[in-house]
């Protein structure tokens, strides 16, 4: 059975008609033996875009969240409210930790809330049935999730703005909740990234170590390389080549400058994963 991945929410829109909405965030619909929604964007465009694309909310059998930031989880309540039945929602338990962005300004430093917009109880009232997952977890026959990504002991995110708040204390976000998907398709294994906050290199290496895979047919989603140091960007490009990735479709937190670099590096193997884009494997 073919697997179709359609981008529902993203910063940019690939086609002008039907009238789709772009927003800073990410969501895609995976259609194979049934339908899985991976992330929900901020919540501004998901209803319009699903309807304009002819996708049915009641057809979604499960929702998987890549991490606890609002631009990936903001549409969760809206999706649940548009469904008649309760829906399994898979995520890492640390996604519910209070997330913050700490932004230094000339006169002061501001602290912005960037986490999930509702409580666990509010989501459950709307129809969520939460399943907390850690490590490498099989969700369906063809779909697995990876969180708690293996990283060096001294690992730190290069986006120092991103924090979490625990018991009133602001600390660096270790991104244990960063979750990616591995999909077995007729074309080969496909990796779906939310933001790759744990590092695209570390994610692919950990997936390879846990599954024995030495090649990935496609990598789709956010790479969070816009603020990465140059040596890591070079390493990421080499890692993708090392795993013989035949399709690299970047989106969202990759950034326009980095997307252009991917396009120059991977040429016909590159694509923008914008709203309205579909990939079939």
Q: Quick one: overall form?
A: globular
Please tally the helical runs, counting DSSP H or I stretches of 4 or more residues: 7
- Summarize the helix and strand pattern as letters: EEEHEHHEEEHEEEEEEEHEHEHEE
The biggest beta sheet, please? 7 strands, mixed
- Briefly note the structural class of the backbone: alpha/beta
Q: Could you give a quick summary of the protein structure above?
A:
This protein is α/β, with parallel strands linked by helices and 281 residues long. It has seven helices and 18 strands.
Please tell me about this protein's structure.
With 281 residues, the protein is of the alpha/beta class. It is 21% helix and 31% strand. The protein has seven helices and 18 strands. Strands 8-5-4-3-2-1-18 form a seven-stranded mixed beta sheet. A hairpin with a 2-residue loop joins strand 11 (162-166) and strand 12 (169-172). The radius of gyration is 18 Å and the shape is globular. The model has no long low-confidence stretch (mean pLDDT 96).
SSE inventory with pairings:
Layout: E1 4-9, E2 27-31, E3 35-38, H1 46-52, E4 60-64, H2 70-73, H3 76-81, E5 87-91, E6 98-104, E7 109-113, H4 120-125, E8 128-132, E9 136-138, E10 143-146, E11 162-166, E12 169-172, E13 180-185, E14 188-193, H5 200-211, E15 218-222, H6 230-242, E16 247-251, H7 256-266, E17 270-272, E18 278-280
Parallel strand pairs: 3-4, 4-5, 5-8, 14-15, 15-16, 16-17
Antiparallel strand pairs: 1-2, 1-18, 2-3, 6-7, 6-11, 9-10, 10-13, 11-12, 13-14
């Amino acid at each position: 059975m073919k697997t179709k991945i359609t981008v529902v929410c993203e910063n940019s829109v690939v086609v002008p008609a039907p009238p789709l909405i772009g927003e800073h965030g990410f969501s895609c619909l995976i259609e194979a033996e049934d339908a899985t929604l991976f992330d929900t964007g901020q919540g501004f465009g998901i209803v319009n875009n699903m309807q304009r694309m002819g996708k049915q909310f009641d057809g979604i059998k499960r929702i998987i969240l890549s991490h606890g930031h609002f631009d990936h989880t903001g549409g969760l309540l809206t999706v649940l409210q548009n469904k008649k039945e309760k829906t399994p929602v898979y995520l890492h338990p640390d996604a519910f930790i209070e997330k913050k962005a700490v932004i230094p300004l000339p006169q002061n430093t501001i602290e912005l809330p960037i986490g999930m917009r509702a409580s666990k109880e509010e989501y459950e009232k709307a129809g969520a049935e939460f399943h907390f997952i850690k490590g490498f977890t099989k969700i369906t026959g063809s779909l697995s999730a990876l969180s708690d990504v293996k990283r060096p002991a001294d690992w730190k995110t290069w986006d120092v703005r991103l924090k979490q708040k625990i018991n009133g204390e602001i600390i660096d976000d270790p991104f244990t909740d960063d979750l990616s998907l591995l999909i077995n398709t007729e074309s080969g294994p496909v990796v779906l990234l939310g933001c790759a906050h744990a590092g695209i290199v570390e994610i692919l290496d950990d997936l390879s170590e846990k599954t024995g895979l030495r090649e990935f047919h496609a990598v789709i989603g956010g790479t969070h390389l816009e603020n990465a140091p140059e040596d890591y960007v070079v390493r990421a490009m080499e890692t993708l080549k090392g795993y013989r990735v035949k399709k690299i479709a970047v989106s969202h937190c990759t950034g326009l400058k980095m997307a252009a670099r991917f396009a120059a590096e991977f040429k016909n193997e590159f694509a923008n994963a914008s709203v309205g884009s579909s990939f079939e494997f």
